[in-house]
Amino acid sequence: MIESRLITYLRQDEALASLLAQYNGKPAIFQQMVPDENGPAWSGEQFSRICYDIVSQSSPDRKTAGTLMIDIVCSEDSSPYEPIEAAVRRLVDGCFFDSDDGTIVAASWQRSDSFTTKGNGYQDSNDNTVHGIMLTFDLMAFPTQEVAGMDLCGCISGWTKATFPSVRLITSGAIPEGAWKPTDKEPAAYWHLVSTQLAQGWTQYNTWSVTWMQAALQCHVFTETPQVRNDIIKQMAERAHLETKIPFPDGSPLIVQRFQANSTWDALKTGQVTLTAIYGLLRVPDGTPIANISINQGG
């Protein structure tokens, strides 16, 4: 998942680092376990600090890849957790991570729950009172969609990039330095295939060489502000209906039937655009063609 990417990303933020204690010369951010309080790497004060954990899960519909839980723990004398929580949400909510296994994952904040407990956060310790807050994020998977043959997502992604050059396509290797958030100047888009079936109403156009198929694809559009996002979605819908045919690399058309856009749909979970289109599936001849054919005519 994103364990190694997340800790590097958080520690690099100067505003967040200034609110945290230091461990081994770095902001006190840890995965799963906090080091022993007697360890020599602590630089005096051990609060405030962050500890996080990730629970992975399978999701056939792609909507979730797991849950990220971030604990912010403070003492009575350290920085309060409110500005730390605000910094963590600013950094993590809506951020894309290039995960350790190559799958791109995005985080979506769900809730924050405050807590207070006795002790300093270590087992068998009764010193002081610590308080903090736990942030819960859903992790959404954005797997690569490239396939051999008629690459529907590659076709529509190429059209999107040509139509909107500033848009970063969410594909393998597209996340700089392992973590990145879309902005209004550099939006992002992700297309994924929902379904394919025989094109209803087009069977009369099927021939020995081609069968017509219908595909449904969804697009997720990400920006910093709703205004820019809504403008891109509107322009995308208008351009698709005006052009009607989007070419594959071999020149064959992806024929737009319906382009439905709704800016109120969730960008991370469902996407805001649904495209229904027709394309021709070429038949591959069976056997080996006969070579060197000669035809004699007449008697």
Protein architecture, described:
It is a single chain. The chain has 299 residues and is α+β, with helices and mostly antiparallel strands. The chain has 2 domains: 3-142, 2-Layer Sandwich (STM4215-like), CATH 3.30.2000; 152-282, Phage tail protein-like (STM4215-like, 2-Layer Sandwich), CATH 3.30.2000.10. The protein has helices at residues 3-11, 14-17, 81-92, 152-163, 226-243, and strands spanning 22-23, 26-27, 29-31, 49-56, 66-75, 96-98, 104-118, 129-142, 168-169, 179-180, 188-198, 210-222, 245-247, 253-261, 273-282. It has a 7-stranded mixed beta sheet with strand order 3-4-5-8-7-6-10. A hairpin with a 5-residue loop joins β6 (96-98) and β7 (104-118). The longest helix has 18 residues, at 226-243. The chain is elongated, with a radius of gyration of 26 Å. The termini are far apart.
Weakly predicted, low-confidence segments: 121-126
Q: What CATH first level of the largest domain would be assigned?
A: Alpha Beta
Helix content: 10-25%
End-to-end CA span: 76 Å
The spatial strand order of the largest sheet comes to 3-4-5-8-7-6-10
For the record, the count of structural domains works out to 2
**Which class do the helix and strand fractions yield?**
alpha+beta
Gross morphology? elongated
- Element pattern in H and E: HHEEEEEHEEEHEEEEHEEE
Largest sheet geometry? 7 strands, mixed
The CATH architecture category of the largest domain equals 2-Layer Sandwich
